[in-house]
């Protein structure tokens, strides 16, 4: 590897928004490593990226198996000596977005959703942060959602009013809080931490009725992963526009 070439790690990077993020970063000359649960699907994604001239590889990653996070750290430390970009893209939704369930959601759904969408993100970030500190300009991007915005949800004319699946939404609200707190802690360093709302995208999670095409799904993450030195930190963005918390 060229020691001047940046390296990025994208969790859940073998499909959907994660793969588009890897593609977008790779086309900027950044080496991309995608975290995958299924090795075969990971190799398929890597082959597709390499066919486009992108330097790409895959490594095993399962948000529900945090014991593997140290292995990921050791891989980046051994091969690259640092990590320039971390995109916490992996996430789950276990219930219907448009079925309000605050009074009925099960503890299992709550715990599983928070485990993947929040707790594993925090733990992985903590494990990899020493390597991000070694980068000249580290960037951390947390994949959130407008559904995590308390401001938008509570507006009388909210455009997301019907989408009240509490486990997913609350996990993204909490993820935004983590973004704010980590960015504040790292203020004065070269590291920037931001939350991204990718938009409602035609993915397995977003469904076929989503208004955004898959090719646009990674654009916000790519923007935040490549912010200049005078770019923002501790914010919540979609396509360059700040969103309400």
Automatic annotation (TrEMBL):
The keyword NADP applies. PROSITE patterns: ADH_SHORT. CDD domains: carb_red_PTCR-like_SDR_c. InterPro entries: CBR1-like, NAD(P)-bd_dom_sf, Sc_DH/Rdtase_CS, SDR_fam. GO terms for molecular function: oxidoreductase activity, acting on the CH-OH group of donors, NAD or NADP as acceptor. It holds the Pfam family adh_short. The keyword NADP applies. Keywords: NADP, Oxidoreductase. Belongs to the short-chain dehydrogenases/reductases (SDR) family. This is Short-chain dehydrogenase/reductase SDR. It comes from Methyloversatilis universalis (strain ATCC BAA-1314 / DSM 25237 / JCM 13912 / CCUG 52030 / FAM5).
């Amino acid at each position: 590897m060229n020691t001047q070439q940046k390296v990025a790690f994208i969790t859940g990077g073998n499909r959907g928004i994660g793969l588009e993020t890897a593609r977008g970063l790779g086309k900027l000359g950044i080496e991309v490593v995608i975290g995958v649960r299924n090795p075969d699907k990971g190799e398929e994604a890597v082959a597709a990226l390499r066919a486009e001239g992108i330097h790409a590889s895959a490594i095993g990653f399962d948000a529900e198996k945090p014991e593997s996070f140290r292995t990921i750290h050791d891989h980046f430390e051994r091969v690259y000596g640092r990590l320039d970009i971390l995109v916490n893209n992996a996430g789950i939704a276990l219930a219907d977005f448009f079925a309000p369930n605050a009074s009925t959601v099960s503890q299992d759904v709550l715990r599983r959703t928070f485990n993947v969408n929040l707790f594993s993100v925090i733990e992985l970030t903590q494990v990899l942060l020493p390597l991000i500190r070694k980068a000249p300009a580290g960037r951390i991007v947390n994949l959130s959602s407008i559904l995590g915005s308390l401001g938008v949800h509570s507006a009388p004319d909210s455009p997301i009013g019907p989408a009240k699946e509490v486990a997913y939404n609350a996990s993204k609200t909490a993820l935004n809080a983590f973004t704010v707190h980590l960015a504040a802690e790292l203020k004065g360093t070269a590291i920037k931490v931001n939350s991204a709302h990718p938009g409602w995208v035609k993915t397995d999670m977003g469904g076929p009725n989503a208004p955004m095409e898959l090719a646009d799904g990674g654009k916000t993450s790519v923007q935040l992963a490549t912010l200049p030195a005078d770019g923002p930190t501790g914010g919540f963005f979609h396509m360059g526009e700040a969103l309400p918390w």
